[in-house]
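Good morning C.,

I know you're traveling, so I'll keep this short. The sequence:
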Amino acid sequence: MAAKKEPKDTRVKDVTAEMKETARRVWLAGLGALNAAEEEGSKVFKTLVTKGEEFEKRNRPRVAKTMKGARERMKDAGGRMKDVLGKVGGSFEERVAAVLKRMGVPARDEIARLTRRVEQLSASVEKLQGKKPATRMRLAAKKTTTAMGTAYVASNAVKAMF
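The tokens, ready to paste straight into the viewer:
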């Protein structure tokens, strides 16, 4: 006689229930491991603190002497390091500035001076043309919400400069 087959819905429900129970057991095992690690971790930490205190008491004079020497050496080294870095930093900055100058790259103050001069010239040209002078402040104050509006303001600003 053939074995009676369970309906498909019953098998799916059994597998689902079994998966849920397995997931729950894995979750509980994780919680148990966390709890055990926390308890054991606290015990280990307390033991390490106690041993550290004992070690410190036994070796305090030697540690103090070593720390004092280390602090003095650090102060000396820090002072020397500042001197060296000051010399190297200044030398490096001077070299970079010289290279940039030879390459024809203007310095920050030159760019600022030229920008002011361009603004003055732009204002003079606009004054001769009978327009209101465009300033950086006024142009920056214009805010637009669309990309087209931004492009339009930018193109007008460029036109106004020339």
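Safe travels,
E.
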